[in-house]
Specification:
alpha+beta, Endonuclease, Chain A, 8-stranded mixed beta sheet, 7 helices, globular, DUF6879 domain-containing protein, DUF6879
């Protein structure tokens, strides 16, 4: 019996809604090109205001999970210096934190020195891992891993990442402070 299977985007979204206790993401690409982000990113690059309406479904989902006692967290691996996309995420990410998501940052050189992976994934309830697959920097689906041995490897990476990552707002203050 196989311990992994491919899950398309819509079914993956259901997994994000249905976890019981904890969902945690390891995010390590320098840029993501999600269709829903194209216009907001263009506006940010042009210095135009953003009402974050495009992000509202996610923020509402995070807030609802938090009210129910469930947690959503992520560690973002940032290039040094951060990519343009990552600089945008430093600003947008404040809304994620306000909604209840624990967002942290780990510099890429530190992630490498710790032997952390170079591919994105989610861990759900410490029981399943969703390896994220991308095509041209766009989410294309995920591969679900449920083998306890494999899941434990990802759990070790999770512990290491969380131990060394910095809260997003502290990282943002440090990066913005250096530019002044």
């Amino acid at each position: 019996m196989s311990s992994s299977w491919v899950l398309p985007g819509a079914q993956f979204d259901e997994l994000l809604r249905s976890f019981r206790r904890r969902a945690w993401r390891w995010e390590c690409q320098g840029t993501y090109r999600q269709p829903a982000e194209a216009e907001p990113w263009r506006r940010w690059r042009a210095g135009e205001p953003d009402d974050l309406a495009w992000l509202r479904p996610w923020l509402d989902q995070v807030a609802a999970a938090t009210r129910e006692g469930r947690s959503i967290a992520r560690v973002r691996v940032f290039r040094e210096p951060p990519t343009e996309y990552q600089r945008w995420q430093l600003e947008v990410g404040e809304a994620n934190v306000a909604a209840g998501e624990d967002v942290r940052v780990l510099p890429e050189s530190r992630a490498r020195s710790l032997g952390l992976p170079t591919h994105d994934f989610w861990i759900f309830d410490e029981a399943r891992v969703a390896l994220m697959h991308f095509e041209d920097q766009q989410f294309a689906g995920s591969e679900i891993i449920a083998s306890p041995e494999e899941v434990n490897r990802y759990l070790r990476w999770w512990g290491t990442a969380c131990e060394h990552a910095v809260p997003l707002l502290a990282y943002r203050h440090e990066v913005i402070g250096r530019r002044r």
